[in-house]
Amino acid sequence: MTLSPIEKSDWKRVGWALKPSMIVLIQPMFLEHSCENVRLTVASCLSWIIALTSPLQPYNNDIMKEILLLIVETLRGLNNITLPTFQK
């Protein structure tokens, strides 16, 4: 599957569809969730949002730092390939 970046002119047409998810996923209740599976799912969704909105930056720098830390922490936890979360 190939992802093509959303052109700035297209963002106005499709951005409204992503906006609710973009707002909810960065709430502390999700970014700091205690369940590893929830954090993995949130990290996965946020990485798709970042990829889809590229080259635009979907969040401010502080939130992007939190998201990238979440992604790195989540990837660090996937060292056991036998766990079901590894497949995600």
Question: How would you describe the overall organization of this protein?
Answer:
The structure is a single chain. The protein is an all-alpha fold and 88 residues long. The chain has a domain at 53-77. Helices cover 68% and strands 0% of the residues. Helix 1 (8-25) packs antiparallel against helix 3 (36-53) and helix 3 (36-53) crosses helix 4. The chain starts with 7 loop residues before the first helix and ends with a helix. The model has no long low-confidence stretch (mean pLDDT 82).
Secondary-structure element pattern, one letter each = HHHHH
Distance between the termini: 16 Å
Mean pLDDT over the full residue set: 82
Summed up, the helix count is 5
Beta percentage is under 5%
Q: Rg from C-alpha positions?
A: 14 Å
Shape: elongated
Helix proportion: 55-70%
Question: Can you count the beta strands?
Answer: 0
Given the helix and strand composition, which structural class is it? mainly alpha
Q: What's the main sheet like?
A: none
Uncertain runs: none
What's the gist of this structure?
By secondary structure, this protein is mainly alpha-helical. It has helices at 8-25, 28-31, 36-53, 61-76, 84-87.
